[in-house]
Amino acid sequence: DDNATGLLNAFSSRGFNVFQVQVGYRKENAFGGTSETFYGDLFMTVLQHEVAHQFDRVIEANDTLKSIFAQLKGSTTKDEDWLRTGVGHAFFMDSPQEIIASQVGNQYLLSSSTQVKVAISRLKSNVSDVPLRWLLLHMELFASPDGSSSRIFEAETDEGLASMKVVQLTRDGIGRIRQAVIKGCFDLQITYPSDTLPLDASLQLLDCSPSPPPPSQPPS
Questions:
Q1: Number of CB atoms found within 10 A of residue 91's CB
Q2: What pTM was estimated for this model as a whole?
Q3: Residue 214 lies in a domain
Q4: Among residues 196, 171, 28, which one has the least CA distance to residue 105?
Q5: Structural domain range at position 184
């Protein structure tokens, strides 16, 4: 409900503004400024963005993730180092609290496979390896406790139901992701030199379209 009159005192500290946007109002391309296009419901994008702000807490509480985030932020020098290129380098430098919310919330939770394509394209064209490193951080945020799997997300239905897929991860001897596979969807393989930065990557991308949603009513 976007009518907050008389209700503000009842909101929790985790409440957020949906800017009077409702489901079905319009669709938005979250991949502006890249070579890819993927549209999603604007209300769901706003919701995903605000929810993704909570991952800042996850990063802050984990020394490894915190270190990776700091290294990535320090490695960025231009718009093309960001997966959300259309937002731009200057904005993220001025508002670092928007980095995860924007790149995970607006893109990864909308179409992870599209974000994969952006990252690989930037690497293969020698524009930047930083987007791929951001993508790997996003996979770490959704990784299982033992690190053997992660999650990707592919769009949502008109009813707002998101499709989630499990990604099988293979790691090298020091824990870096070197392969991410979803059978019938994609196979991402990453090559590293002696340091921690990806040197090369290959992507076999098939059809990551979501499966048909389950019926809204159980069969009689």
A1: 16
A2: 0.83
A3: no
A4: 28
A5: 20-205
Please give the Cα distance from 157 to 153 (Å, whole number). Answer: 12
**Burial bucket for residue 31 (CB in 10 Å: 0-12, 13-18, 19+):** buried
Q: How is the beta sheet containing 186-191 ordered, strand by strand? A: 149-156, 162-171, 177-182, 186-191, 200-205
Is 149 inside any structural domain? yes
pLDDT tens-digit profile, the chain (220 residues)? 444 444 444 445 666 666 667 776 788 899 999 999 999 888 888 889 999 999 999 999 999 999 999 999 999 999 999 999 999 999 999 999 999 999 999 999 999 999 999 999 999 999 999 999 999 999 999 999 999 999 999 877 766 677 899 999 999 988 999 999 988 788 999 998 776 667 778 887 666 655 444 344 433 3
Q: Is residue 101 part of a domain?
A: yes
For the chain, how many structural domains are there in total? Answer: 1
> How far is the C-alpha of 154 from the C-alpha of 142, rounded, in Å?
14
Beta bridge partners, 201, equal 190
